[in-house]
Amino acid sequence: MKKLLFVVMGWLIVMTACKKDSDSAIPVTSSNFMFFNGIPDAVYDVLLDSIKIAQGVKFGTNTPYATLRAQMYTIYLIEAHRPKDTIRAGQINLRNKRSFSAYVGVDSANKVNVIRTLEDDLTPPPPDYMKFRVVSFSQSFRANGQSLAIDLFSRSSPYFRGIGFAQVTPVATLIGDSTYNFNFRRNDDTTVITSTLDFKSQPGKIYTLVTVGNALSSTTFKTFTITHNQ
Question: What residue stretch is flagged as signal peptide (predicted)?
Answer without folding.
Answer: 1-19
